[in-house]
């Protein structure tokens, strides 16, 4: 029976699923296996003789110390290594924890067990003193907000503040809703002459665009929805029954025409819908139908999303609506704020490296070609200086930045901060209001 107990423990080790949300079965089996060993491991059994081998006995004496020491060693190593540890390195560090475990057993655990050195009265005093120190330390942490570095608080607040900015006024619809009347922005005393139409990228620049419009005594209506670019008949491959994006785009187009708005600004995460495989692969969409057919002005493209981009532009032009398109912006590989937190120490903020401009260029080549062609044919006006994120440096490799003067341009891997939006929209007034 003791062998069966050992087998159950071994099975739990080998079969354990670290991603299981309810590993209770493994826990119960391991406890049951341990109980079998305790009850049936007698001096005349094979397992008793095996577990009595001196190296195993010695390991048993320090095993709790190994358990206590291995966790901080792994945690601090991950922080110092700034990445997940390999399996080999993890095993090596666990073996390394035997060293401090041995010394803590010899110089802490054994003396505390020896009543001739530490009697009950002294032990009680030590416990009380340690408990008071822990309470005092907890009070200090509470009063000082966990001894938080204000630079970390700034980074964390930057994420939340920009999310709130993007979601302000409930103007960004989620994936489940499509009914909207839009949000009036800018100088709201004026009749809107513009509409901003796009996905969450449009929402991320709406506040800065509103400030520009207010300065010029003009207003616009914001229409924005998560994962829904300004195109018609788009459906999700993952859920073909979800028609909210299609209904939303139809509704927005009809509202712009009915409100007699004569200018529309289109903005989205353009290329992620065209080539999702170049990004995170999560945006899998298709166009249900297209009235435009093969593109005549787009440069040799059969991509249905690119055709759909052109179709929405043609539809607006047919209704005498002038179309402004904001250029694509660089998409970072990772969230720069998360990366900064991981790379930095308590004493120094370290920003992640920029991405090569050639990556940005390759990901967006098809979209740039389409928009350039439409602009040259005077069907759209391209606005927004995306080159501001990828400055040309003489005699150096061109890169796209995630920060300027240590101020973030993005609050995740693709949405702009307030500073990023201001730089993108810098000097667009001359294009919008000339």
Kindly describe this structure:
The chain is of the alpha/beta class and 434 residues long. The chain has three domains: 2-114, no CATH class; 115-147; 152-432, Rossmann fold (3-Layer(aba) Sandwich). 51% of the residues lie in helices and 10% in strands. It has helices spanning 2-15, 24-40, 46-51, 54-81, 87-96, 98-113, 120-143, 150-167, 200-215, 244-258, 270-274, 304-318, 336-343, 357-376, 418-424, 429-432, and strands at residues 172-173, 183-186, 194-198, 219-225, 234-236, 263-267, 285-287, 322-326, 355-356, 381-383, 399-400, 403-404, 407-408. The strands form four sheets. Strands 1, 2, 3, 4, 6, 8 and 10 form a seven-stranded mixed sheet that branches. Strand 3, helix 9 and strand 4 form a beta-alpha-beta unit. Helix 1 packs antiparallel against helix 2, helix 4 (54-81) packs across helix 5 (87-96) and helix 8 (150-167) packs across helix 9 (200-215). The chain is elongated.
Summarize the SSE layout with pairings.
Blueprint: H1 2-15, H2 24-40, H3 46-51, H4 54-81, H5 87-96, H6 98-113, H7 120-143, H8 150-167, E1 172-173, E2 183-186, E3 194-198, H9 200-215, E4 219-225, E5 234-236, H10 244-258, E6 263-267, H11 270-274, E7 285-287, H12 304-318, E8 322-326, H13 336-343, E9 355-356, H14 357-376, E10 381-383, E11 399-400, E12 403-404, E13 407-408, H15 418-424, H16 429-432
Parallel strand pairs: 1-4, 3-4, 3-6, 6-8, 8-10
Antiparallel strand pairs: 2-4, 5-7, 9-11, 12-13
Helix pairs in contact: 1-2, 4-5, 4-6, 8-9
């Amino acid at each position: 029976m003791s062998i069966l107990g050992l087998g159950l423990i071994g099975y739990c080790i080998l079969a354990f699923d670290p991603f299981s949300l309810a590993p209770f079965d493994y826990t119960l089996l391991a406890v049951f296996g341990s109980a079998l060993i305790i009850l049936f491991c007698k001096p005349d059994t094979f397992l008793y003789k095996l577990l009595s081998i001196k190296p195993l006995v010695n390991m048993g004496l320090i095993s709790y110390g190994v358990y206590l020491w291995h966790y901080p060693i792994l945690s601090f190593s991950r922080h110092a290594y700034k990445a997940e540890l390999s399996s080999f390195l993890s095993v090596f560090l666990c073996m390394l924890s035997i060293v401090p475990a041995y010394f803590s057993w010899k110089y802490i655990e054994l003396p505390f067990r020896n009543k001739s050195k530490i009697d009950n009265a002294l032990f009680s005093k030590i416990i009380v003193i340690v408990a008071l120190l822990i309470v005092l330390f907890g009070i200090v942490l509470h009063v000082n907000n966990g001894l938080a570095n204000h630079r970390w608080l700034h980074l964390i607040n930057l994420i939340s503040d920009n999310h709130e900015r993007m979601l302000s006024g409930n103007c960004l619809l989620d994936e489940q809703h499509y009914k909207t009347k839009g949000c009036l922005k800018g100088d709201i005393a004026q009749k809107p002459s513009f509409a901003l139409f796009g996905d969450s990228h449009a929402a991320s620049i709406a506040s800065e665009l509103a400030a520009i419009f207010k300065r010029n005594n003009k207003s616009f209506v914001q229409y924005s929805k998560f994962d829904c670019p300004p195109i018609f008949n788009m459906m999700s491959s993952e859920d073909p029954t979800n028609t909210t994006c299609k209904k939303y785009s139809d509704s927005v187009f009809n509202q712009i025409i009915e409100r007699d708005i004569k200018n529309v600004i289109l903005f989205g995460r353009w290329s992620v819908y065209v080539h999702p495989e170049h990004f995170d692969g999560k945006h899998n969409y298709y166009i249900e139908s297209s009235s435009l057919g093969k593109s005549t002005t787009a440069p040799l493209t059969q991509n249905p999303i690119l055709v759909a981009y052109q179709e929405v532009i043609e539809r607006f032009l047919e209704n005498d609506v002038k179309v402004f398109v904001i250029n694509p912006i660089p998409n970072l590989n990772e969230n720069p704020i998360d990366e900064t937190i991981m790379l930095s120490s308590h004493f120094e903020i370290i920003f992640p490296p920029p991405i090569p401009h050639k990556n940005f260029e390759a990901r967006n080549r098809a979209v740039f070609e389409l928009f350039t062609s439409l602009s040259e044919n005077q069907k759209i006006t391209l606005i927004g200086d995306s080159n501001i994120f990828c400055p040309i440096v003489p005699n150096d490799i061109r890169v796209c930045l995630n920060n300027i003067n240590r101020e973030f341009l993005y609050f995740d891997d693709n949405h702009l901060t307030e500073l990023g939006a201001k730089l993108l929209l810098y000097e667009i007034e001359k294009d919008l209001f000339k």
